[in-house]
Design brief:
mainly beta, seven-stranded antiparallel β-sheet, 45% strand, disordered N terminus
Length: 341
């Protein structure tokens, strides 16, 4: 049986209407998809939204929750600032004390077992809401101290030149708001692909592993099913192994084997091991069977090598060819998904 991992793609849009007073909310939209890119229509989901001050892991100044559902196209649309209050007050946020960062957590089953989907810096909303409370200026005075440099971005429009008069020169117009996007992480080595947005890595088998009796106590590497990653902070890591196997036996015989997930050369302590027995008879020989196993680990920052290995599990029987080959009939896969904490 193949395992399905639910992956959610979120789109943040900030819209502020030009009213006399800026609304204490902004729109937040998202599209739910599975790991094949298919949308999840009419799905009940739970959301927890947090605003952090200073850094992506800074103090939470506001937090709220939402219960909503996707439409027939997998789209959902809510108002940040209008959910069920958990802590803080949206109207009391001092937007001049930024920067501020927007964190999204989601439970795709509609409950409160939230999964962290990432943090992004708020740009348009804080500036617009700060403008609401800035007030109107008085008479021209001395030039104030230069404020801190804003984030690097596209050059904003030149400010209007102040009127000529006695006294100091009027201030230069504000630089446009913008930022340079962060550099993406380096992709993994070896065959396979890396989904940088969801921190998902996939590698495929490169050749077939053949195992024969008697029973062994040593796990042997399935060719190609290994991947090294580096974690910059604490994270949960979901490792999944999928594939097929074929016994070479004819007549009434069997092949017994197990597939285990290794972390830095050690079998994972719980879960992650699949035991298989393939039978043949006088009518059906050299039978195929599929296998799958997975493990969820909580790991600290560091470098880890994950691999899929197999061993023979019986004193007799026939040779078995384990998934790993480049052909579609026997090719296996190793999937690693990093869930930042």
């Amino acid at each position: 049986m193949k395992k399905v991992i639910i992956i959610l793609t979120l789109l943040l849009s900030n819209f502020l209407t030009s009213f006399a007073q800026a609304p204490q909310k902004f729109n937040y939209q998202g599209v739910a998809r599975d790991n094949s890119g298919n949308v999840l229509p009419n799905q009940n989901i739970g959301l927890r939204l947090s605003i952090r001050q200073g850094t992506p892991t800074g103090t939470i100044v506001y937090r709220e929750t939402h219960s909503t559902s996707t439409n027939p196209f997998g789209l959902f649309d809510i108002e940040a600032g209008g959910g069920t209050l958990v802590s803080g007050a949206f109207s009391s946020i001092d937007w001049s004390a930024g920067p501020y960062f927007f964190q999204t957590e989601m439970d795709a089953s509609g409950g409160s077992n939230y999964l962290n989907l990432g943090t992004t810096q708020l740009l348009s909303v804080p500036y617009a809401l700060y403008a609401e409370t800035s007030g109107s200026g008085g008479s021209t005075g001395a030039t104030g101290a230069t404020g801190p440099s804003g984030p690097v971005g596209e050059t904003g429009a030149t400010g209007v030149t102040g009127p000529t008069g006695v006294g100091t020169t009027g201030p230069t117009g504000a630089t446009g708001v913008g930022s340079t996007g962060p550099t993406g992480p380096t992709g993994p080595a070896g065959s396979g692909s890396s989904d940088l947005y969801n921190n998902t890595y996939v590698v495929y088998g490169s050749s077939t592993l053949s195992l024969s009796p008697p029973q062994s106590t040593v796990y042997t590497q399935i060719p190609g099913l290994t991947q090294t990653i580096t974690l910059t902070g604490a994270a949960k890591v979901l490792i999944s192994v999928n594939g097929n196997a074929q016994t070479t036996g004819t007549g009434e015989t069997y092949s017994a084997f197990s597939v285990g997930i290794m972390s830095n050369g050690t079998l994972v302590p719980s879960g992650g091991t699949a035991y298989q027995c393939i039978l043949t008879n006088n009518v059906v020989a050299q039978t195929f069977d599929d296998f799958s196993t997975q493990a969820l680990l909580t790991l600290a920052a560091g470098t880890y090598t994950f691999s899929a290995r197999a061993r023979y599990e019986a004193s007799g029987g026939a040779t078995v060819n384990i998934s790993g080959g480049s052909g579609s009939a026997l090719q296996g896969s190793l999937i690693i998904q990093v869930i930042p904490q």
